[in-house]
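2.7 Reproducibility. Because tokenized structures are sensitive to small changes in the input, we list the exact sequence used for DUF4982 domain-containing protein, including any N-terminal residues retained from the expression construct. No trimming or masking was applied before prediction.
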Amino acid sequence: MKRFLFIFCCLLLSFGTYAQAGRRTFSFNADWRYHIGDVSDASATGFDDRAWKQVALPQAWNEDEAFTKAIHDLSTTIVWYRKKFSIPKGITSDKVFLEFEGIRFGGEFYLNGKFIGRHENGVMAAGLDISDLIDRDHENILAIRIDNSWSYREKATNSTYQWNDKNFNANYGGIPKNVWIHFTSKIYQTLPLYSNLKTTGVYVYAKNINIPEKTMDLFVSSEVKNETLQSRLVNFVAEVHNAEGKLVKTFSKKFNLPANRTQQLTMNSTMNQVNFWSWGYGYLYTVTTKIVQDNKTIDAVETKTGFRKTAFKDGMVYLNDQVLMMKGYAQRTSNEWPAVGLSVAPWLSDFSNGLMVKSNANLVRWMHVTPWKQDVESCDRVGLMQMLPAGDAEKDVQGRRWEHRTELMRDAIIYYRNNPSVLFYECGNESISEEHMAEMKTIRDQYDPAGGRAIGSREMLDSKLAEYGGEMLYINKSARHPMIATEYMRDEALRKYWDELSYPFHKDGEGPLYKGVDASDYNRNQDTYVVEAVHRWWEYWKMRPGTGDRVNSGGVNIIFSDSNTHFRGKENYRRSGEVDAMRIPKDAYFAHQVMWDGWIAPDPKGLYLVGHWNYAPGTKKDVLVVSAADRVELAVNGKVQKEAEKLYDFLYRFPAVDFEAGVLTAKSFTKDGKLLNKKELKTTGEPYKIRLTAQHGKNGLFADGNDMVLAEVEVLDKNGLRCPLASNTIDFKLDGPMDWRGGIAQGPDNYILATSLPVEAGVNRVLLRTKYDKSGRVMLKATSSGLLSDSTVWTVQPLKTMADYFVKESNENLPSFLARGPSPANPTLVQLKKSLKIRAVAAGANQEKASQSYDDNELSDWVNDGQLGTAWITYTLQEKSDIDEVDLKLNNFRSRSYPLQIFVDEKLVFDGNTDVTLGYCTLSFPRTRGEKITIKLKNAPFTTRENNQVEMGGKKLDDGVARNDANAKGTLSIIEADIHQVLAN
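Resulting structure tokens (single pass, no recycling of outputs):
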């Protein structure tokens, strides 16, 4: 009892601000018990649960299966949870709310034996008001029955949920996200939890943003309930603290709160010297909204947020007045780790999402379902913009399943509308009808009218309502709403496979068939994975902002980290990540780092020397260098090699370089020969020793049962260099109050939870998790036969606890990433090309559809009648102009080549075959002045690459406008044509 009183007093001091405010929030994650399987009477207060497993949340009950089982084999069943709790004396408990950040999938909640609610969407947060049901003087029992069946059906309608899908939505069941308990007085600001509570909380937003002057008008709006029997005159107060904790603004307004009513309180004030949130600059403010009566704060809510200015116009995205080409990753929302699933420590979310930013990504598109709160807040801190879905599978739906999607979008918008990193709301993973788009826009406009966020969907190429669009694998351009590829480059590569010439010798394209398609279509080693990564980004880069009126606004690469979702190779997980499941980078990660380092144009100093320099004598090796510079030089032990072949603007290939042990050096230069950067690879010696390092959150390591340590083990030679071909088995020994979660490697059960596992390419990582309320010293030792061992030590800090509640300090005081600095002051957009306007068009056939070849609608096209003699089209410009090139999106763009001739005022300026692409081909020719441009099919088009590729679900990949013209000998089909004058740089 003395210990409890001491801790209680400490907590009163720690929560002094909250105590004065009359609101307190605690973690409700501790001391749960669960049982796998349905149990009768498990909701009853007298039920004996002593034999049930004890757990601290967040934690999926089937977490051990993450990466050891394929997604479709993850266990599903009924699981019961129970938690006993009391309200400590001294806590104001007029109103008591529970906040579940999310359960998987459907749950039924019971308090003290009474049914109190249901939550069934399997994704978003939900709240429960237990104020009238809780026993304030005795112990309470909360029981939850959760069903994570793949075929879960809504109880009221018997409808399934579209996003409960075995391909992409990894099924980590139970309560894999945080739970909180909130105590307030009867006059309080509501929680942003629409499910069950039907409340919307606080909304903070800015208007009249002036970036150069650093000013804006700050608005705060809070939904307030007065559940007393008297009206109250209150002062609504807002206090704004900057990222350094300094109070920079206070303003207030008086309101009358009628008895037993809900009211929206809104006020605004001007702010000066604002630090605006930006890419890689997670500058956040804390806005505290208070309800004050008679100079006493009766409720206070802290909202962590940031301010930025956005626009979505002219086919481009603007952030803080500057054009930003979108580049990043389409990441599975589960964002999972081996043997843990999604329930990682808060700092690990920052570590993973921060790695995206360090690769120079600026956008993450969470796939199919809304991410959990921890990832959204993490993106705020690291400066990573988000494309936020509600829930979807692969198509538009009707009836109750569509209503599920609108309800989920509503809940997500309310929950995340104060998070500055959210720039896009995604309505679907496929196009939706204009009627449905209008519904979604209405929801956005109702709950987030001033957040500066675009709402759209994948595809939506011809929509008049969507505010952005973009297909999955293809290049789209637009002069209207931005076109952003939502998931490009689906190739896969294990991190351990360097190339065909070094251990463990992976031939490009080697692997099993997938739905009848050969693995050569997708299965890479690290070298060829880099080539593909550069090639694919280059296609978007060619159509970047500044290349005319119609541009592409970028794209996101699927996926960032290897994922326990739909797969094609021998492994039972997806290996498309630029990092592996433990977030160890592959070479393609560094390739993106070079290409993406800039708002549009990359920093020319970017340079990466691909691979390693450890081969058998006599080996000839194609050496790859990724660079944004004008020229790259390669030397072996100081001997300069022949000039490289330059591919795709960013890739330099030095063919058949003779291996010679020593130092491989790459240098990059400007056009005039100025050295920009230098990188080296050194031949290493034999494995000699182990290096073991460990990291945890910069805010500390806490015994909350969820905080984690990530330990990295490397095999080094005598000179301390990592041995890139090492695959030694490492034996780990743990001593101290933490649980072993381990890592992953190729082998039996993917070595999940194993305490001995091999390094791959000389390195691996393992995870350890704290135990609830168990603090102290921890030592981890790593040994391997024939190598010098290593060990590392750290300390787990104790918790601040009060009965069943604790302060989740691992969630607090996490630092923001500010390394990139504020948005650039100088214009990022450089106009490289001028689009020449078309006044009239004439065609050899189907004249009435000729204008569809330049109508800024990639779902329409012009096509002739299949006769070679009519396979021509002539564009007349608005005025005579200098003409340098034509961009064409031709039907069957990914498989068919067209022998074309281009004439300017009857002068032949181009005669050649078009390349197959992901969309557009650029046909350049010597500058010619003229007014009429004729594009003519010279001979029959021919197939250069069979369109055998299929989506993960087996659907054949798109190849333009669907039409049965494969055997037509004289068919010319133009989806879009752009005529350009190239401007001087």
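Residues 626 and 651 are 5 Å apart (CA to CA).
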